[in-house]
Design brief:
Length: 223
């Protein structure tokens, strides 16, 4: 549903919505503080409905509006109603902002303390726990980073046998990279899809929705 605009009262809303329905535009309205909002079901009808609303506000005595006022109809009952719950919206926004700053503080802490050149593979504890998956290869790489400081490329050549074995295992452990690669190559993969969810961590089906890369990410999701 798309918002067309606001009129002063329910009578205006009824007349205007009736005129839209007579034009073949599925529309409805909802009460808000200080007026009534008009909605259309299809985005394709938004521009035409907006033009109608401007015309109605300028000249509500036009023939088409007089006709609608004489025979008002109730908005299509099958049309989904818009439910406003600003408190719930604010709570969700607050949760997203909270987790963003928490994750950001963890990232800053990692960058300050960790000089390992492989820390690009290092996820924050929040990300590890809340992303839709945390494959075994990531856990192995995390274990390697924690055990073996690698500040330059040469350090990889000077690893002890156990370190080389762990690094090799992390590199060779397959992980699911999404359907796109499979569509391109057509090759089957030994990687397991959604490893952690299969292990019973079902919260990962929902938790990624509160994770955001930056404040702009949150703001654009609010549009």
């Amino acid at each position: 549903m798309r918002l067309v605009g606001t009129v002063e009262n329910e009578l205006d809303a009824t007349v205007f919505v009736t005129s839209l329905q007579q034009e073949g535009i599925a529309a409805g309205f909802d009460h808000i503080d200080g007026g009534v909002q008009i909605w259309v079901e299809s985005e394709d009808d938004l521009e035409r409905a907006s033009e109608h609303l401007e015309a109605y506000k300028k000249a509500p005595t036009q023939k088409r509006f007089i006709k609608a006022k004489a025979k008002p109809t109730i908005a299509d009952p099958d049309m989904p109603r818009v439910i406003f719950n600003p408190i719930l919206t604010k709570i969700i926004m607050g949760i997203c902002v909270f987790f963003f700053f928490w994750s950001w503080l963890q990232e800053v802490d990692i960058e300050k303390k960790d000089t390992n050149i492989l820390n690009v593979f290092k996820l924050t504890p929040i990300a590890q726990y809340m992303l839709y998956d945390y494959p075994e290869t990531y856990a192995l790489m995390q274990a390697f980073i924690n055990q073996y400081p690698v500040t330059k490329k040469e350090d990889l050549q000077n690893l002890p046998p156990a370190g080389k074995a762990l690094f090799k295992k992390a590199e060779e452990t397959p992980y699911w990279k999404g359907i796109y690669e499979w569509l391109l190559t057509g090759n089957e993969t030994k990687a397991v899809m959604f490893e952690k969810i299969r292990q019973g961590q079902y919260w990962r089906l929902i938790s990624p929705v509160v994770l955001h890369g930056n404040i702009l990410h949150i703001l654009f999701n609010m549009l």
